[in-house]
Design a protein that fits this description.
The complex is a heterodimer of chains A (146) and B (57). Chain A is α+β, with helices and mostly antiparallel strands. Chain A contains 5 helices and 5 strands, in the order αβαβαββααβ. Chain A has a 4-stranded mixed β-sheet, sandwiched between helices. With 57 residues, chain B is α+β, with helices and mostly antiparallel strands. Chain B is globular. The chains are: A alpha+beta (146), B alpha+beta (57). Chain A: Pfam families: Thioredoxin_3.
């Protein structure tokens, strides 16, 4: 069964065609077919991302196995699955762990568009404050599917 | 994206309950900045940035 309905697909196709500028690569880390790994949402997440990637030629999906594809696992610093890396012209450290369903799916769409444009959707006063950050910051945001 | 020093991870906590326990997640969204500064619920952008600055001071 598909996650996206025909009307969702049409909506996304039009939105991405109108708003995307540069390509965005989604690196998806999933369980290895030869290892017995407990990852109940890996297959669902993969299917959802495949359906999403099919809505725009500018969205490239690359599927990696964890932990077997060591080079990619190390490069992107992946320590659990399912893991999704959203990458525009460079990796700016955006990760999603788990399945981005419900409201989180809209977050993903906005993330892809922002990365594609190469600039965040934030007001100038917020950007000015963010410019003051001169040492590494990691923000973890915990969510549940809604 | 606005600053190369800042990384962001979203974690679907029902799939990683051990992280929910570790970071005392009793409601969502909950944000944890540099393992120290916590924000419960959704915060206005400018308030969120203040918390980020607080975490690096």
């Amino acid at each position: 069964m598909a996650f996206l309905q025909e009307k969702d697909i049409q909506f996304l196709k039009e939105k991405f065609a109108k708003e995307m500028v540069n390509d965005v690569t989604i690196h998806f880390f999933t369980k290895s077919p030869v290892l017995a790994q407990d990852c109940p949402y890996c297959d669902h997440t993969k299917q959802l991302l495949e359906e999403l990637a099919a809505t725009s030629e500018k969205i490239k999906l690359m599927v990696h196995t964890y932990p077997t594809e060591k080079e990619a696992v190390e490069k992107y610093g992946i320590d659990k699955i399912p893991a999704i890396v959203f990458e525009g012209t460079e990796d700016v450290g955006i990760r999603f762990y788990g399945i981005p369903s419900g409201y989180e799916f809209s977050t993903v769409i906005e993330t892809i568009i922002d990365l594609s444009k190469g600039k965040p959707e934030l007001p100038d006063n917020v950007l000015a404050e963010l410019a003051k950050v001169t040492s590494p910051v990691t923000i973890k945001v915990f969510v549940t599917p809604t | 994206m606005a600053n190369a020093n800042i990384r962001a991870e979203v974690i679907e906590v029902s799939e990683f309950p051990e992280l929910g326990d570790k970071y005392n997640v009793f409601g969502v969204p909950k944000s944890v900045i540099n393992e120290t500064v916590e924000i419960e619920g959704a915060a206005p952008e400018i308030m969120f940035v203040q918390k980020v600055l607080e975490a690096v001071q």
